[in-house]
Design brief:
By secondary structure, chain A is an all-alpha fold. Chain A has helices spanning 2-7, 20-37, 39-42, 74-110, 112-126, 130-141, 145-171, 175-182, 187-223, 235-242, 251-282. Chain A is elongated, with a radius of gyration of 22 Å. Chain C is mostly helical. Classes of the chains: A mainly alpha, B alpha+beta, C mainly alpha. Chains in contact: A-B, A-C, B-C.
Chain lengths: 283, 506, 311
């Protein structure tokens, strides 16, 4: 998970133009969220309504993305599914982000046993591949949306913790922080008012790419049958259910995959754009 | 010169017709792709079709169910007699049968194997319940004495759990030793088992039927995903596959190289209802659900029209199946009326447990959700892994569960007792318990007159429909797809494949 | 250097111990009972109880853990509940499959990423760079299992170029059978590697020692390859380490999609069958593999530091 952060590390040369990616990513996201929110208006189909006389129809004017094996409109389901996948993605990163940032800041600033405790926990979780651990935890808790959130929460915070700890460690011996300490400012105030604001931007940039990872993880769990319960139009579940029909109805699996990719690209652009923006500010 | 040519042709013909494994023009290995992996090859302790179908290549029984699943054929026993009082059965074993080690199969082996199946507390213990004693009279004569006359005895003896194993080798073996290194007298012997991947079998050189098996190696490969399995068949990686999904049957049939078979089965798919809890303890409510279940639509949505809507709890091929039954025909008005009569207030929410990732049951459950909605019944789907689902089912900690049964014997008693006798399995884990049913079940076991037995099982079917502890959905055929170069493949109605006659052209 | 290495190795041991506890606790708390699952629908309650006792499932959790650790220490990795045979017997064949797959995907990633990164860096901000960067962003957003299914449709079903399952026999056969899965595993890796390598190449190109090398009169291509590329490898090594651990995690899903008999598909099968001994051992194996890779990355890192070499 550090990889995306790594590649987004600020380069030395600042670009002065407006980050196009930010605008494009935001526009794509707004379109998707708007489409999902307005789904009842945009399509006349019910995402759950079965029609066995319209099974596996290819894409057409009536069914833009075709129909699945229950005769449900795939476009409608993809739109409704956006609400599920994006909700999980955003909810799933909130806890790890908050907890990771706090744990990282505390560990970095206090050092000593606090740092040791946080870092050992980070080491242990890092030692098990992300996907393996998430799958294992969901298998333990059973499938379902809440359990996905818990599993990702338990595993995902370590990246933010490591990131913020690194930033705080670097900054805490800078002259101005030493000066603040000499002036008698409280630890909490130094961390909250001075160190965190500097450490947050890189964490926020990483947040965007972490959401991509969470979207992919959610759909992977859905694919393995460990995710959201059927017949919810979750994208991974739709791919899993649709893949039986790759001979007779490729669209049932392909379309939700494209939706997943679309959302991922939107967040990547958003993250890249955010990184660019912060670089410009930093100059 | 002509003589030489005719000699060559004659030898060639002989090789083709009666040829030993590996004859010119034929493959030496049959590759078969399966959707579930075998995990236990001990016939007595295991409980799953992938195991049974694999070890049926290795073991023989005294008697075997015939291919159609409605009668018996000799296997290790050439013939058998029953005493006039119906209590003493004598089996005469074929003298030429040998273990794959080369040692002869004796009545002592058979006696030990059946005794083990009788004593071991496994899932098939009921099959020899009526047995008083088992003894070898001489090397090739086995005498079994029953406590009382027992109608389905031959059927019980033919069950795979009563496979005959070499006593000398396994006398002190644990079940896992038998599973890991099975030895039998059947057409094939296990040579390598990469668990969860591939079972490799070689022809048993001592198999009593000369010239069989016709191909020297059989590889059973575990390819869980339907697509991978179908592509493996179409690309020639494997010669045949089991369970191509119903949705793809018509597509595969367009491929001229493939023979897509829908084989008669003893399968029945059903919805289990936990009748110990409200509102499913209300018989009118269960009847309402039964009427609201559109079997024709399920046949279309799950089986793409290749199944037969179920009219009884019994599979089609079972002895005493009542062809005259109509079962529950889809009738929403009747369902609504019954629901009103039941007094169950709507809307009702029920939870359907299902195995995560299970194909057809999941589709069926999803369809049920749509069908029951107009009745005011909301069906929520709760996928669980197999282990958790099984545990909940056993503890009667569920409401609705779509599952299925396959008969292993033609006699109806195995299924009837499992499904409606509370003591055997809490009536298929529904919790159903009826004194009237208990009486009928007991009568079915002891009545020896076929005509009277038929009447008893007709009554059982009627009562089952009336009490509706389960909703019977459809009878599915076994789907198999094989390359047309593969010849001699047979699937029995009870499920197992016969590979001993199989040849595969190169 | 030796002290650093020993110290780094020493850190790994307590972490490995903590990992075993984490894994053990996770699996033990799973609802559902392996005994019921193994014996199936038709087992009696008594036989289920007997099996639970036989496996020690009725003993206190810490006792089970102690037994597990003692067994591990003596090289006994447990007996698969489902298959009733030692996990250690089943492990080597499956490990070699996954190892082959992961290394294969690494080779493919490097083969894809390095040339593209060099081109992109050499043509920075011109159209080849833009095209490469844009196309390399796409794979990051696509779910690997979905890409695997698409590859399966195109290359196995339509074009019949590659098999859809298994591992094959012999090296050439392995290469053929695992091409699509390795490609699926590698595309995201290649994308990250390419973007990363490009940006470090660009960074290094702007540093003074490159100017110095140029000033010495070295040709552009020589500078790019001999000095810049080597310097840019430094972050790439770390990245390769991290991505390798990703590939191990990704193998769980990809092996399931392509029906490959490796550790990953075994893991998924075992989770569904509640074969907790296997799940424990496999998670431990995945963790050990990850820890070894991290260790190797940290040990290799100093060797690539250009400042040491330039000095």
């Amino acid at each position: 998970m550090t990889t995306l952060a790594g590649e987004l590390a600020p380069p030395r040369a600042a670009r002065t133009r407006v980050p196009l990616g930010l605008a494009a990513g935001a526009a794509m996201l707004v379109a998707l969220l708007g489409g999902s929110a307005l789904a009842p208006v945009l399509t006349s189909y019910d995402p759950y309504a079965q029609n066995l006389n319209a099974m596996l129809l290819p894409p057409s004017a009536a069914h833009w993305f075709g129909t699945d094996n229950y005769g449900r409109d795939v476009f409608t389901r993809v739109l409704y599914g956006a609400a599920i996948d994006l909700r999980i993605a955003v909810l799933a990163v909130v806890f790890p982000f908050v907890f990771g940032v706090v744990a990282g800041a505390v560990a970095g600033y206090l050092g000593g046993w606090a740092d040791a405790a946080v870092m050992r926990a980070v080491d242990v979780i890092t030692a098990v591949p992300f996907m393996v651990l998430v799958i294992a935890i969901v298998a333990f808790l059973g499938p379902g949306e809440l359990n996905i959130l818990v599993a990702i929460g338990v595993v995902d915070w370590i990246v933010f913790a490591r990131l913020v700890r690194g930033e705080v460690l670097r900054d805490k011996n800078l002259e101005y922080v030493t000066a603040l300490r000499a002036l008698g400012f409280s630890r909490a105030r130094i961390v909250l008012r001075h160190l965190l604001p500097n450490a947050l931007p890189p964490a926020a940039v990483f947040l965007a790419s972490d959401i991509v990872l969470v979207i992919l993880t959610t759909s992977t769990l859905g694919f393995l049958g460990l995710g959201v319960r059927p017949p919810a139009p979750e994208w991974g579940l739709m791919i899993s259910e649709g893949r039986t029909f790759i001979y007779t109805g490729w669209w049932a699996a392909a379309m939700p995959g494209f939706a997943c990719m679309y959302a991922g690209i939107a967040f990547i652009l958003l993250g890249d754009g955010l990184a660019d923006l912060l670089r410009v500010r930093g100059q | 010169m002509r003589a030489v040519i005719s000699f060559v042709v004659a030898v060639g013909l002989a090789l083709t017709l009666f040829g030993p494994a590996g004859a010119a023009g034929y493959k030496t290995v049959v590759q078969f792709g399966v959707n579930r992996a075998a995990d236990n090859l001990d016939p007595v302790t295991q409980d799953a079709n992938p195991n049974i179908w694999a070890f049926m290549q290795i073991y023989q029984q005294l008697v075997r169910v015939n291919v159609k699943g409605d009668g018996f054929v000799p296997d290790l026993a050439q013939r058998w007699t029953v005493s006039p009082n119906g209590k003493t059965w004598t089996f005469y074993l074929r003298p030429d049968a040998k273990w794959s080690t080369g040692d002869p199969v004796t009545a002592a082996d058979a006696a030990w194997s059946l005794q083990r199946a009788h004593d071991l507390d496994g899932p098939w213990k009921w099959a020899l319940e009526a047995v008083q004693s088992i003894a070898a009279a001489d090397d090739h004569t086995l005498v079994i004495t029953l406590k009382e006359p027992w109608a389905p005895f031959l059927s019980d003896v033919s069950l795979f759990s009563n496979s005959i194993l070499p006593a000398k080798i396994f006398r002190d073996a644990k079940p896992e030793d038998i599973s890991n290194k099975p030895v039998g007298s059947g057409p094939f012997m296990l040579t390598e088992w990469r668990k969860g991947d591939e079972i490799v079998m070689k022809a048993n050189p001592h198999y009593f039927e000369k010239g069989r098996p016709r191909t020297s190696e059989l590889h059973i490969r575990y390819i869980p995903d339907d697509n991978n399995r179908m592509i493996a068949l179409q690309s020639g990686d494997v010669d045949g596959i089991d369970y191509p999904p119903f949705s793809q049957i018509s597509v595969l049939r367009r491929d001229p190289r493939l023979d897509v078979q829908l084989n008669p089965s003893t399968a029945v798919s059903h919805v289990m209802l936990n009748v110990t809890q409200a509102p499913l303890n209300n018989v009118k409510f269960r009847q309402a659900l039964s009427y609201a279940t559109d079997r024709a639509a399920i046949n279309k949505g799950v089986c793409y029209g290749f199944c037969v809507p179920a009219t009884s709890f019994m599979p089609l091929t079972t002895l005493y199946f009542n062809k005259g039954l109509k079962g529950y025909t889809y009738d929403m008005d009747k369902a609504k009326a019954l629901l009103k009569e039941s007094g169950v207030p709507t809307p009702v929410t029920l939870t359907a447990m299902l195995w995560a990732g299970a194909g057809d049951p999941q589709t069926a459950t999803t369809l049920l959700k749509g069908m029951w909605a107009p009745l005011g019944v909301t069906l929520n789907l709760a996928p669980l892994d197999r282990a958790a689902a099984t545990q909940r089912m056993r503890a009667l900690d569920y409401q609705v569960f779509v599952s299925g049964w396959t008969n292993d014997v033609p006699d109806p008693s195995e299924l009837a007792n499992y499904e409606f006798d509370y003591v055997t399995a809490k009536s298929y884990h529904t919790g159903y318990h009826s004194a009237q049913m208990d009486k009928l079940l007991a009568a079915g076991m002891s009545e020896l007159d076929p005509a009277k037995r038929r009447q008893i099982y007709y009554q059982i079917q009627d009562l089952a429909i009336q009490d509706a502890p389960l909703i019977w959905l459809y009878y599915a055929p076994y789907t198999i797809a094989i390359n047309r170069k593969m010849h001699g493949f047979v699937q029995m109605a009870t499920g197992p494949w016969l590979f001993k006659d199989v040849t595969v052209e190169q | 250097m030796l002290r650093y290495a020993l110290g780094r190795i020493g850190q790994t041991v307590p972490i490995a111990l903590l990992v075993t506890i984490l894994i053990f606790l996770l699996i033990k708390l799973v609802p559902g009972d392996p005994a019921s699952a193994i014996l199936g629908d038709r087992a009696t309650d008594a036989s289920v109880a007997a099996l639970r006792h036989q496996w020690g499932l009725d003993r206190p959790i810490w006792e089970q853990y102690a037994v597990y650790m003692r067994n591990l220490a003596t090289g006994n990795l447990g007996t698969s509940l489902r298959y009733q045979s030692p996990v250690a017997d089943m492990l080597p064949a499956r490990t070699s499959v996954t190892f082959f797959l992961v290394v294969y995907s690494l080779v493919l990633s490097v083969a894809i990423a390095v040339p593209l990164a060099l081109v992109a860096a050499a043509y920075r901000d011109r159209w080849p760079d833009q095209v490469i960067r844009a196309s390399m962003a796409l794979p990051l957003a696509a779910p690997a299992f979905w890409v695997g299914i698409l590859l399966l449709i195109v290359f196995s079903l339509k074009l019949r170029l590659f098999p859809a399952d298994g591992y094959g026999g012999g090296f050439a056969d392995h290469v053929r059978h695992l091409f699509l899965p390795a490609l699926t595993l590698s595309y995201a890796f290649a994308s990250v590697l390419c973007r990363n390598l490009r940006s470090s190449l660009v960074d290094v190109l702007q540093t003074t020692y490159v100017d110095f090398a140029r000033a010495k009169g070295l040709r552009r291509r020589v500078v790019l390859f001999r000095h810049v590329f080597r310097a840019a490898l430094l972050p790439a090594v770390t990245l390769i380490g991290v991505r390798l651990t990703y590939a191990i995690g990704g193998s769980v899903v990809i092996e399931t999609v392509f029906a490959i008999p490796g550790l990953g598909s075994w893991m998924v099968d075992s989770i569904l069958a509640r074969d907790y001994v296997v799940v424990q051992t496999l998670t431990l194996m995945f963790a050990l593999g990850t820890m070894l890779i991290n260790l190797a990355t940290d040990l290799i890192y100093p060797l690539f530091d250009p400042r040491l070499r330039m000095g």
